[in-house]
Specification:
With 122 residues, this protein is an all-beta fold. The chain has strands spanning 3-6, 9-12, 17-23, 33-38, 45-50, 57-59, 67-72, 77-82, 91-102, 105-112, 116-121.
């Protein structure tokens, strides 16, 4: 599975961005999909996940109420709508497929895309 993330950029605090992640094959719909983020010197951090059907979503506490994950299996694409952005949201965001975890805790994945930089200025 190849994943291509896009949509990152520079935005002022309080602004919005929408990240997209395009998959490479139809088996995409069989995977739990998600987003992680990483800043220099820190471990990669879970941000959001979405079930195979899109019926269940999971979020890190730090983004609940501000970020929304969605997917379109027909387009083999997953999205992350980010609103009310804060400077602490600045990171490289990674799209991931076939997440590893349990319950609402996701900590790794079998497939990763290249990251896209999100920078939030204060």
């Amino acid at each position: 599975v190849q994943l291509q993330a896009s949509g990152g950029g520079l935005v002022q605090a309080g602004g919005s961005l929408r990240l997209s992640c395009a998959g490479s094959e139809r088996t995409f719909s069989g995977y739990v999909m998600g987003w992680f983020r990483q800043t220099p010197g820190k471990e990669r951090q879970f941000v959001a996940a979405i079930s195979r059907s899109g019926g269940s979503t999971y979020y890190a506490d730090s983004v609940k109420g501000r970020f929304t994950i969605s997917r379109d299996n027909a387009k083999i694409t997953v999205y992350l709508q980010m609103n009310s952005l804060k400077p602490e949201d600045t990171a490289v965001y990674y799209c991931a497929a076939d997440l590893i975890g349990y319950g609402s805790t996701w900590y790794n994945a079998n497939y990763w895309g290249r990251g896209t930089q999100v920078t939030v200025s204060s």
